[in-house]
Design goal:
It contains 16 helices and 19 strands. The strands form five sheets. Strands 1, 2, 3, 4, 5 and 6 form a six-stranded mixed sheet that branches. α2 packs antiparallel against α3. The termini are far apart. It binds 2-acetamido-2-deoxy-1-O-phosphono-alpha-D-galactopyranose and zinc ion. The site of 2-acetamido-2-deoxy-1-O-phosphono-alpha-D-galactopyranose (NG1) has 13 residues, from loops.
Length: 518
C-alpha cells in the first residue's frame, strides 16, 4: 500500500513541463532503426517524452542512460533522437514500442503509461530517491539541437532524474560516455578527454609495430570530409592528442557549408562521387563522415581520374583479413564470420565466401540486428555498405583502425580496393502514401506485400545479367528505398528505375513517376 501511495504521489506532482510540450495534431511517429527522425519543428514533444522515457529506462536498468539529439545524415532541417544504454548499446527492441507510444501520448495517456511502466520496473519499491537516475545528453551541430536537448532535460527533471548535457559530441562519443559511466571507468575515463586519450594511445601503441615501407600507407596523405557536422571539430580535437602520429587535412568542417549538403558519407555513397568542390588528386586518399560521425567511407582517384569507393563492405574486408592474419600468427582456431545486410555488394559476399572462406550472414538493415548476430559468432565483423559499422559505428575510431590496419598489413588503399570488383549498383527513393504498407521477408530481400510486387520485381531482374533488386521502407526517411545491382552500371540504373516505377504503380506512389537516374 505504501508503495502504491508513493508511486501515485510521484506521478501526480510531477510532469510540470508537460503543458509546454503538447502533441501536435496529426503527427504520429515510430521509433525506428535510428530512433525518431522528423522535421525539427515536429519534435519538441517527442524530445520531452524521451527525457521521461530515459529516466524510466534508467530506473529499470539501474544504469546511466544516454539521449542523443541528432538526425545523422538527414538534411539540416530534420532532427532526431535515440536512446543508448548499458555498455552503449541501442534501446532494446522490446522498449521501442514504449518509445513509440510515449511519443504521441497526451498528458493523461502519458501518466497512465508511466504508471504502467513503473509497475513493471523490477525492485522499484526498494529503490532510493529518483536522483540516482542519471541521463547523459549529447547534441549534433544542427541549429535546432540545443532547444531539443533542453526539451529532453525538462523530461528528465520532471521525473526527478538528473542529467548532464555534454553539448556537442558525436553519437559514438556519447555511446562511449554512457558505457564508461556504467562501467565505472573500466573501459576508460568517463569524459571526452578519456575518450581521446584511449583512442590515441591505442593507435600509437599499434602503429609502433608497423615498419613503414616505401610506398605503403604512410605515403598517402589523408583528407577527411567532415560533412559540415560534429565529426570535423571532434577529429580536430582527436588530432591534438595524436601529436605527430597521424596527420589529416579536414574539409567541410562546418565553418561555411551546410550540414550533409553535397558532402558527407551518404552523398558520396549514393552518388558514388566526391563531395562537391573537392579536387581529388591521384596519390592522396580521402574519407567522408556523416553528420554525427558514425559512418566512414574512403575513396581515391586513379591515374585517369576515375573515382573509386572503399565502402563499408571493403572496410569489413580489411578487418576480416587483419583479424584472420592475427589469428594465424597467434595460432588460434577461432572462426571469423561476416555479418552484412542486403545492401552489401554481391561481389563482397562472394569474396568473403569464396576467397576468404568465411561464413557470411545477411540480416535486416540496422546495426542492432547485425550486432546481435555478430555476438553469436566466435568473431563477428560487420559494417553496413554505407560505412556504418559496429553497434556504435564510431567513424573516428574506425578511421584510426583503417589507417592502422593498412599500415600493419603494408597494404595501400588502392590495393585494398582491387581485392575484388564491386558489381555496379544504384539506389533510388520512391515516395508513397504509406510506406509501412510495404512488408518484406528474408532479411528484406523479398516483398510480401503488396501482392504482385515481388513477382514483378523478379520478372524485371531476369531481364538483366548478374542482377539483384529489392525494396524496403526506410526507417529514417518517409521513403521506400530501391536497390539494384547488375553486370553494368547502365543495367543497374535501368533495373533500379524499372523497380522504382513498379513501387510507384503498385504501392501507392505519390506525385510524378520516378525519373531514370541521370
Ligand atoms: P534506412 O533509412 O532505414 O534505410 C539508413 C541506412 C541504414 C542505417 C540507418 C541509420 C541505408 C540503405 N540505410 O536506414 O543502413 O545506417 O540509416 O543511420 O544506407
Ligand atoms: Zn550517422
Amino acid at each position: 500500500m505504501a508503495m502504491h501511495t508513493r508511486r501515485r504521489v510521484e506521478m501526480d506532482t510531477e510532469l510540470q513541463n508537460a503543458n509546454a510540450y503538447p502533441v501536435p495534431s496529426g503527427i504520429t511517429m515510430e521509433y525506428g532503426t535510428a530512433g525518431f527522425r522528423a522535421p525539427a519543428c515536429n519534435l519538441p514533444h517527442v524530445m520531452y517524452r524521451m527525457g521521461l522515457l530515459a529516466v524510466m529506462r534508467a530506473r529499470y536498468t539501474r544504469e546511466v542512460i544516454g539521449v542523443m539529439v541528432t538526425a545523422s545524415h538527414n538534411p539540416e532541417e530534420d532532427n532526431g533522437v535515440k536512446l543508448m544504454e548499458g555498455m552503449g548499446e541501442m534501446l532494446p527492441v522490446s522498449w521501442e514500442r514504449h518509445a513509440t507510444s510515449f511519443a504521441s501520448a497526451h498528458l493523461g495517456e502519458l501518466r497512465t503509461q508511466l504508471s504502467a511502466l513503473l509497475r513493471d520496473c523490477p525492485g522499484t519499491e526498494s529503490s532510493s530517491p529518483a536522483q540516482k537516475y542519471h541521463v547523459l545528453i549529447g547534441e549534433d551541430t544542427r541549429a535546432s539541437s540545443k532547444m531539443l536537448a533542453q526539451a529532453v532535460s525538462h523530461g528528465v527533471t520532471d521525473l526527478g532524474g538528473t542529467f548532464k548535457n555534454f553539448g556537442l559530441v558525436t553519437t559514438p562519443q556519447l555511446h562511449y560516455l554512457v558505457a564508461s559511466h556504467n562501467s565505472e571507468g573500466l573501459i576508460g575515463e568517463p569524459s571526452l578527454d578519456g575518450y581521446y586519450h584511449k583512442l590515441s594511445e591505442a593507435y600509437k601503441a599499434l602503429m609502433a609495430q608497423s615498419k613503414p615501407q616505401p610506398g605503403n600507407e604512410g605515403s598517402y596523405p589523408l583528407t577527411m570530409d567532415g560533412a559540415n557536422g560534429v565529426g570535423a571539430p571532434k577529429m580536430a580535437e582527436l588530432l591534438s592528442y595524436m601529436k605527430h602520429s597521424l596527420s589529416v587535412k579536414i574539409i567541410n568542417n562546418g565553418e561555411s557549408g551546410k550540414l550533409n549538403h553535397e558532402c558527407g558519407a551518404d552523398y558520396v555513397k549514393i552518388g558514388q562521387r566526391a563531395p562537391k568542390g573537392l579536387q581529388m588528386r591521384e596519390g592522396r586518399i580521402y574519407c567522408s563522415l556523416d553528420g554525427d560521425a558514425d559512418r566512414l567511407l574512403y575513396y581515391f582517384v586513379d591515374k585517369s581520374d576515375t573515382f573509386h569507393l572503399v565502402d563499408g563492405d571493403k572496410i569489413s574486408t580489411l578487418m576480416a583479413i587483419f583479424i584472420q592474419h592475427l589469428l594465424k600468427e597467434a595460432q588460434l582456431p577461432f572462426q571469423v564470420s561476416v555479418v552484412q545486410t542486403a545492401y552489401a555488394n554481391g561481389s563482397s559476399t562472394h569474396y568473403f565466401e569464396e576467397t576468404l572462406l568465411l561464413q557470411v550472414y545477411c540480416l535486416p538493415t540496422g546495426v542492432k540486428y547485425l550486432h546481435a548476430k555478430a555476438k553469436e559468432c566466435d568473431i563477428g565483423v560487420y559494417f553496413e555498405a554505407n560505412g556504418h559499422g559496429t553497434a556504435v559505428g564510431d567513424a573516428l575510431s574506425d578511421l584510426l583502425a583503417v589507417q592502422m590496419m593498412l599500415s600493419l598489413l603494408d597494404l595501400s588503399l588502392p590495393q585494398l580496393y582491387a581485392l575484388y570488383t564491386d558489381l555496379p549498383s544504384r539506389q533510388l527513393k520512391v515516395k508513397v502514401m504509406d510506406r509501412q504498407r510495404i512488408t518484406t521477408t528474408d532479411a528484406e530481400r523479398r516483398v510480401t506485400h503488396p501482392d504482385g510486387l515481388q513477382a514483378a520485381i523478379e520478372e524485371r531482374v531476369h531481364r538483366h545479367l548478374q542482377a539483384r533488386a529489392f525494396v524496403r521502407p526506410s526507417g529514417t526517411e518517409d521513403m521506400v528505398r530501391v536497390y539494384a545491382e547488375a553486370e553494368t552500371q547502365e543495367s543497374a540504373d535501368c533495373l533500379a528505375h524499372e523497380v522504382a516505377l513498379l513501387v510507384h504503380r503498385l504501392a501507392g506512389g505519390v506525385g510524378e513517376e520516378p525519373r531514370a537516374p541521370s
